[in-house]
């Protein structure tokens, strides 16, 4: 055990002192915090104000198009030819022309009306949809009035449906608020992060073994320790590097988020947002601002409903379990070949389960409690990614424990399997290895 600890110490200190480790440790928290902070700021941001000139020959939309903080309308009392000249010599974003001829289309309900939007460049789809819906609304109002129907009656029965989700636990005695969108984003983020970490640190194990083998340093090391001790020391040492980096990411991310919460208290104040949403008249806010605050409030509520303690503990376990399982196989590949170029033929059987997990991510997210998701979260080769995809949606502790137990068994098996290849291949040079040769090593 003392020899393994020395190898662990060497692997750990060698890697944490590298510039790449320091750079990624700094960049990681910034990126993770940005994923939580940037959406909130985007929800609060407003684009530059765009002004659209309007020539309305029908008189139905004159001074009727709704103004927003980002979109203004100016009505020109002139013909379209003159309006075009004005537009070309002004800073208008676009020119909206509603010809009188489209009035005739009102009688034919199945025929669409076709206003024209002139612009110096392609207008955004959001602006086109906003204008189209606004014009549609005004023309529908005119038709209702012509038919003797009060438009306010129809407005009074319009309803907006916004479904909120609540989790019932402990036979209905406990309720927890949830947010499907936040759970989906967290599921994808944690699953992809596990996938990247396993690949990144597993590849470090393989490259480290190849470097020591090709430089013949391993011959000196093997004279003092057993091949299995060397392999386990390298795997655990790099695992500790990954765990250190992840813990630093969590700490620095929380520091960055806390800093922004204190620097911008109004943006992150859930109580104030709830007050504005429940009593918009008292706050004298525009409807657009209220919609923006509602979106921000939903994002913050969704984040607040996440049990980060469970997520972090689960992530650490499944990262370590998945890494240890795959790192042993990566170490075996590194010991069997003489250069990194020779690893390609052996990488496919190892990487296919991980890639398959990512491919199945969308299916698992759509049905996280289905039989496919359940069995993929039990198989050790796919469980690290798939289980992290499922946990944000709620998984029973029994299933998590079963998955963890099978993952431990998988790690023990792959370690035994890899050790048999490692102890033979680590001192073998100049021979092209194939699967038949590997089988011989396994049966020695």
Structure description:
The chain is an alpha/beta fold and 444 residues long. The protein has two domains: 305 residues, no CATH class; 108 residues, 3-Layer(aba) Sandwich (D-Maltodextrin-Binding Protein, domain 2), CATH 3.40.190.10. Helix content is 66%, strand content 7%. About 4% of the residues have low confidence.
Can you lay out the helices and strands and say which pair or pack?
Elements: H1 2-16, H2 19-44, E1 50-56, E2 71-75, H3 80-88, E3 94-98, E4 116-119, H4 125-146, H5 151-157, E5 165-169, E6 174-178, H6 180-214, H7 217-222, H8 227-263, H9 270-278, H10 280-283, H11 287-304, H12 308-336, H13 344-359, H14 361-366, H15 371-376, H16 383-390, H17 397-425, H18 435-443
Parallel strand pairs: 1-2, 1-3
Antiparallel strand pairs: 3-4, 5-6
Q: What is the element string, with H for helices and E for strands?
A: HHEEHEEHHEEHHHHHHHHHHHHH
- Which strand order spans the largest sheet, edge to edge or round the barrel? 2-1-3-4
- Average pLDDT rating: 77
Beta-strand proportion: 5-15%
Most strands sheet: 4 strands, mixed
Distance between the amino and carboxyl termini: 26 Å
pLDDT < 50 runs, ≥5 residues: 270-288
- Rounded to an integer in angstroms, the radius of gyration calculated over CA atoms is 31 Å
Helix fraction bin: 55-70%
Structural class: alpha/beta
Q: Give the overall shape, derived from the CA principal axes.
A: elongated
Number of helices: 18
SS elements, strand count: 6
Number of domain modules? 2
């Amino acid at each position: 055990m003392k020899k393994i600890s020395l190898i662990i110490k060497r692997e750990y200190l060698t890697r944490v002192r590298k510039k790449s480790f320091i750079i990624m440790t700094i960049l990681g928290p910034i990126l993770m915090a940005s994923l939580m902070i940037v959406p909130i700021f985007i929800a609060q941001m407003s684009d530059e104000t765009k002004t659209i000139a309007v020539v309305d020959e029908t008189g139905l939309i004159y001074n009727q198009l709704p103004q927003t903080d980002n979109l203004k309308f100016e009505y020109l009392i002139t013909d379209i030819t003159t309006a075009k000249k004005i537009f070309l010599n002004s800073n208008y974003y676009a020119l909206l022309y509603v010809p009188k001829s489209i009035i005739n289309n009102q009688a034919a309900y199945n025929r669409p009306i076709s206003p024209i939007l002139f612009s110096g460049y392609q207008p955004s789809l959001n602006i086109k949809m906003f204008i189209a819906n606004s014009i549609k609304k005004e023309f529908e109002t005119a038709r209702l009035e012509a038919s003797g129907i009060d438009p306010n009656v129809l407005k009074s029965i319009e309803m907006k449906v916004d479904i909120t989700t609540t989790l019932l636990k402990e036979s209905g005695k406990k309720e927890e608020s949830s947010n499907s969108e936040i759970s989906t984003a967290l599921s994808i983020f944690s699953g992809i992060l596990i996938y990247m970490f396993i690949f990144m640190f597993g590849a470090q194990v393989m490259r480290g073994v190849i470097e020591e083998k090709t430089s013949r340093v391993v011959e000196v090391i093997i004279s003092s320790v057993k091949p299995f001790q060397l392999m386990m020391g390298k795997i655990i040492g790099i695992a500790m590097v990954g765990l250190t980096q992840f813990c630093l990411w969590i700490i620095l991310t929380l520091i960055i988020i806390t800093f922004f919460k204190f620097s911008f208290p109004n943006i992150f104040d859930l109580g104030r947002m709830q007050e504005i949403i429940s009593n918009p008249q008292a706050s004298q806010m525009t409807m657009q601002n209220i919609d923006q605050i509602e979106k921000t409030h939903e994002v913050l509520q969704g984040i607040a409903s996440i049990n980060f303690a469970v997520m972090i503990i689960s992530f650490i376990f499944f990262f370590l379990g998945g890494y240890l399982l795959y790192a042993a196989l990566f170490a075996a590949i590194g010991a069997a070949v003489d250069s990194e170029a020779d690893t390609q033929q052996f990488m496919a059987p190892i990487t296919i389960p991980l890639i398959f997990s990512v491919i199945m991510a969308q299916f698992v997210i759509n049905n996280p409690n289905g039989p496919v998701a359940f069995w993929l979260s039990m198989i050790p080769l796919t469980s690290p990614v798939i289980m992290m995809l499922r946990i944000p949606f709620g998984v029973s502790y029994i299933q998590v424990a079963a998955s963890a137990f099978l993952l431990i068994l998988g790690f023990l098996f792959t370690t035994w399997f890899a050790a048999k290849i490692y102890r033979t291949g680590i001192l073998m040079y100049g021979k092209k290895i194939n699967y038949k040769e590997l089988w011989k090593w396994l049966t020695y």
